[in-house]
């Protein structure tokens, strides 16, 4: 396999400070690289280390156990699309343990010709070495190697498993699996030891066929054990030798775009261990698995993967530390990256990159539809929820801006282009329901900022463009600078989009999902750009601003329908004071044509925090005056 040396982040090699920027997955302060497929984590979690060695019961013997094991393992295999071959499968670690117990390992050892001459206590010692590893810890377990030999067919020669002792003496173990196949010769290659083990390549009456089947089974037995700890470092699994990933059943393709595809997948609790208050182990089975498209060169693909991962991993030592080390609440409002995978399904080809996320219960538009009958703009619990979510989502966006600005400084990238999320829309705010708090309803809901794909670095655009006209974006919520000549994109472009989403939320709270998503949209579309700004007939565009021409100069203005909505909401008898204050912030500090008139994320967080604290004070009249006004 080609050496894994990811290219520098910069397209031209070095940053202005002459320091090559290392990919984030190679940063030991932020990421733990897992090259053993999580085997050590799994064995430690299930007390299968050499220090856990126990005497194996010998009271019962069973005939033909090898044939029974082969049949059970074939029946236990799960199909998965995330493997080198669509026909490839994997065996869950939990099911594997149920079949390959210490007692079964001992029965197999007793039935192998190569061990029949040993005394019972010697056979027991060999079985313990196979199951746990040697007592001194120098020789790893070899259960999977034993099983791969059992299930690999050979119709004409001796059973491959009878050569198990020779392979072990040669130094083979579970650490060697999976073995890669050379595309030309078909030889089996050990990535772990960077060598060809001669004995394994001599097995089989039809060697090419044996190697093919053995390589497939060695992959099926080595799907990674996934660990995530929200207080620990991010885990990146480097899978030399290929897949599969441990996804069960039918995986449905939920989304496909220019940057990648997203599947809804199931992962058995026995194939993972997640330590998190918001993701209690065993309470969920569904996850979102994103695979980056291989449309570009290997270096560009690696760069895109690095930029996306950087935005999703928190660094406690970043400039303007937001959140602080103990600020777990803000982290709960940014999508949690559970694990990443770098899978080499061919020895010479580029890797496949995967990102694993929690599966959401919907997006913000789904919430508006689902809760349409429950909304109440004067309900204290709902207002408390909205105010908290607005504050923490803005703080989460500040984290993205701060982190990306720091990356931009370190890489010499234009921070105005890269230092932003890039696609703030209701669809990119995901809804999670805490399974432990479902009875509390609003308290059990959490809105999470997700999908950082459009904010990643596009080096060609960075070098050649001075505006946002060629940058991908969602038109409805995009700031004017995306489409008005001569205006730079910046992190404040996200603030405009966030103002659009906040306004829609309040429209929904008062008037419902149909008004927020349909009626208000139609009102905006009825206002067209000034004819002089278009080469042809002006289009009906659903966005919050319109192109204008003043004294021959092209510009933009907030649409009158948006202004009317703001005024209408503010003047409602049931618009309590705190909502009025938020509407004022949206109008005066977010939905502004000139970026200089908008708040940055830091100032917006400060202002929303001021409103939030005033709202929550026990002795505050903030809410009481409003309730009295409504009661009149």
UniProtKB/TrEMBL annotation:
Keyword Disulfide bond recorded: no
Domain of life: Eukaryota
InterPro entries on file: Kinase-like_dom_sf, Prot_kinase_dom
Gene3D superfamilies xrefs: Transferase(Phosphotransferase) domain 1
Domain Protein kinase: start-end pairs: 248-611
Single Gene Ontology MF annotation: ATP binding
Keywords, sorted A to Z: Kinase, Transferase
Claim: Ribonucleoprotein is one of the keywords in the record: no
Any Pfam family hit: Pkinase
Protein name: Kinase-like domain-containing protein
Species whose genome carries this gene: Rhypophila decipiens
Lineage of the organism: Eukaryota, Fungi, Dikarya, Ascomycota, Pezizomycotina
